[in-house]
Each structure stands twice: as C-alpha cells, then as structure tokens.
Amino acid sequence: MPREIAVFGVLIPSLVPLFLTAILLQAGLDWLFTESGIYRRLWHPSLVRLCLFVLIFCGLLLWFYQA
Description:
Layout: E1 4-7, E2 10-13, H1 15-36, H2 45-64
C-alpha cells in the first residue's frame, strides 16, 4: 500500500482512510451497544468507547500493513 494517496492533486497519508473507516465502524458499534443496553452495565462507558476505537484502528492497520 502506498504511503500517500493522491486525492484531487492533494497527497494525504494512507492512514487517513483507515482512520475514517475506524470512526465509522466504531460509531456503528457504539450505536449497537447503546441500543442493546451494554453501556448501562459498564463502569466507564467513555473508556470502553475509546478502547473500542483503538482496537478497531489497530486491527485495520495490522490487516492492511501486515508483512
């Protein structure tokens, strides 16, 4: 995978699409957890949201940049 992606003549890092994908996936899982009531059973929902985002983002990075 290239290090930069050209979008309308502007070079953006290849991490940006992965970051945006992770945000969308985390938002979907956040909605699912909220609707199912999982967050009501947790001690610190904000920490779970952050950890969920980090896990998704790192998983995407490992999936795309595996050697």
